[in-house]
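Anyone opening a protein record will find just a pair of labelled lines. A complete record is shown below as an example.
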Amino acid sequence: MLEQNQPRATDSAPDKNTGKGAKKSAKKSAGKNSDRNQDLFDLYSHVFEGNIEAMLITGADGVIIHANAAAAKVSGFPHQELVEQHISLFDTPRNDALLCDMEKRLISTGTWKGELWYRRKSGEDFPVWQQISSVTDESGQLTHYIVEFSDITEYRESQDELARRTQELARSNQELEQFAYVASHDLQEPLRMVASYTQLLARRYEGKLGEDADEFIGFAVDGATRMQTLINDLLSYSRVGTHTKPFAVTEIADIVSRVKSSISIMLDECGAEVICSSLPALPVDASQMAQLFQNLIANAIKFRGETPPKVWISTTPGPREWTFEVRDNGIGITQEFAERIFIIFQRLHTKEEYPGTGIGLAVCKKIVERHGGRIWVEPAAPPGATLRFTLPNTQGETPS
């Protein structure tokens, strides 16, 4: 029994080589981990050094520990002059107002990003976009800061140039509108006199000076009348930008109703019908909105087909804007002229075919753009034309 209970050497006797094998395995595993860590370190170092963005790593005290080549290039400081220097080396009094906010953000969120100024080694200040990120250990203790920054001098200069050009353009447009208004206004009186006297000549001497004289006087009267129309239309166009009223929340349906009343004679003469769906209340210049709808409705009636004209006005709400649609059953607009019709004094037909100066839709475009919207012709096959325009939904309302 004792013999049976004796352990066999093959079952439990310790192997003298087991401890040595475990040590070798541990050393081998540690070696692999060390190699892997070294590979990761080399990779991170390559990314840090080769990054096109300037990068710094500082201690918790703000002293620079590492700086990549881009940081040295942008700042003008050689690499050896950056390491072991405090990051305030780049500081300039222009940043004084930002430092308090930067410190608060870093404490509360661990990051800060924004525009500020750096000072190069040459003493030149330049604008940068900077991001600072805090690094903490496992216990939450701050250990390092990672600082990334980019020289945005060219970007800032381009923005300043854009702002300058925009300001010049706005001033030029204002001067042009003022000039158009003054010119058209001052031309009214002498042109009125020319038209009056040519009309007087036509009445008094028609048939007395011969057929040629009658024809010449007719040309003069027609030219003076058309010039008056052009001047009046130019005056209307210039007033869109100079004679404005503050925006006020207005029921668009009320505006359309007033327009229908003001052109009721024209509607009755041609048997036209204007059909409106539910329309919103929006902040607009009511007088300009009335001019917009009157021009669009009158345009639809003027370019009507053989059947009595019909005009449908509807809207579609969106999260930021309302889209208005004005559709008719007239002769339509081919897509090749979709942009041209909104250019001042551009006509698609002769004055014998359809009267007018070609300014109505240009005025519509200017009114819509003043309200922050856009206007266009919706591609559609004749008969009929569909114009759409948008108005901002600044109230955030949608129909019920």
